[in-house]
Amino acid sequence: MNVDDHAIRTLFDRLMRAWTDNDAVAYADCFTEDSDYVSYDGTRAVGRMPMQEAHDRLFRGVLAGSALVGGIESIRYVNPDVAVIHGTASVLMPWRSTLPKRRLSRQTLVAVRTQDGWRFTALHNGRVRPITIPAPDSAPSRMAQAMGRLARGLGVGRRATTT
């Protein structure tokens, strides 16, 4: 393991320890001031302080006494000062001794080298909910294809755009 891998793994461990200590300040200190944080439910906090304030409310409320468990799956360097990390980290509630499968989450994090060492500048958290993709000739696929043809034939339906 190289020095940067070790530093990033240490940062990830600090992140988990801060959560388990329910310390929003220490948790936020793992991130850059301008970090971008997307929670498992899709909410987004832009900047360290909004994320810290949200975690302070969580740690004093519904997640009081919870622990963060998991680990790093991979580290890929985009350049010497930027890394993409994939990991798992899921909340273990204080009344549980094992993590229910439905709580398993996967994170994509972006770490950057700063004057203060490595910090996360982005985190996106999503629940692990694998689905089986139906084969193109399966009944669900054939139904979706038929509905698409019917909609186009009737001139209904539009492509969704995001703002």
Structure description:
This protein has 163 residues and is of the alpha+beta class. Helices cover 32% and strands 34% of the residues. The chain has four helices and six strands; from the N terminus they run ααββαββββα. It has a six-stranded mixed beta sheet, with helices on one face. Strand 3 (67-79) and strand 4 (82-92) form a beta hairpin. 18% of the residues are buried.
Please report the total strand number as a whole number. 6
Q: Class by helix and strand content? A: alpha+beta
Range of strand content:
25-35%
Summarize the helix and strand pattern as letters.
HHEEHEEEEH
Summary keywords:
34% strand; 163 residues; alpha+beta; 4 helices; six-stranded mixed beta sheet
SSE order and pairing:
Elements: H1 3-20, H2 24-28, E1 31-38, E2 44-46, H3 48-60, E3 67-79, E4 82-92, E5 105-114, E6 117-127, H4 139-154
Parallel strand pairs: 1-6
Antiparallel strand pairs: 1-2, 3-4, 4-5, 5-6
In short:
By secondary structure, the chain is α+β, with helices and mostly antiparallel strands. Helices cover 32% and strands 34% of the residues.
